[in-house]
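USER:
Before I trust my own judgement here, I would like a peer's view. Write it directly below this note and I will take it from there.

ASSISTANT:
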Amino acid sequence: MSGGDAIPEFSKAKSGGDGQDVSLTNLSAFASGPGIKSGAEVAAILAVAVVIIGGIELALRLFHVPQYIMPPPSSIVYALFDEFPLIAPHLGYTLVELISGFAIGAVVGLVMAAVITQFPFAEKIIAPYILILVTTPMLALVPLLILRFGFGYTPRIIAVALAAGPMVMINAATGFRRVDSAKIALARSYGASTLQIFWKIRAPMALPMILVGLMIGAIFGLLTAVGAEMVGGGFGLGNRLTSYSSMIQMPQFFAVVLILSTLGILIYVLFFLIGQKWASWET
């Protein structure tokens, strides 16, 4: 490329197309709507939560529902704080599995997405195997992985990576392809190479879809990690679910469910905030 010619930066431009792109910044009403602007709205949200939780508590106690069927919210909260010292190590095990497996799956998924978008022939070879991974429940492979690798971290990390990788790859590949051809043509007219076009145009414009893929992959990875822990092994939150349910300790059981729900929410909030900072131009 001749010196003096610079490749235009398109990372802050909105992608073309007639339809609105799916992005992390428009997945919720808080991103696309006016958001929370007053204390009255916050108070209303909290009041609805109090009414719902209080109503459940009152109904369960009024109708004398046994705790082994459905414990009241107060018992779940008490069990959460009372049992948390025992649950915390298992939470750490699950996080290790999730983070390790997700990191492996995300890296492989992003690399494969870049390969199949740059080399269409590679997609014809890889696509059938990706389809198999997407449509096959990873939990069905866990017993086989345990048989091969034992009851430690390895089979669970592999299962998480296999669950998260295809989700990241599919969304990232969609984002890499969803680029206005006029931008690519303009970059080529400036003498940009294929690699320069990928890093300066395709990758920035694909960032919203990449973040969506990472978020979905992380959530799928969490579900797979918990499921793998329930299938086999003596540690992890999934193991706690199995243990508490077998002993009919339902307040402790729902306390673990509450922790898992919180993890899922934190995953969404994390990628939502990243999207707001690095891909807010999409809205």
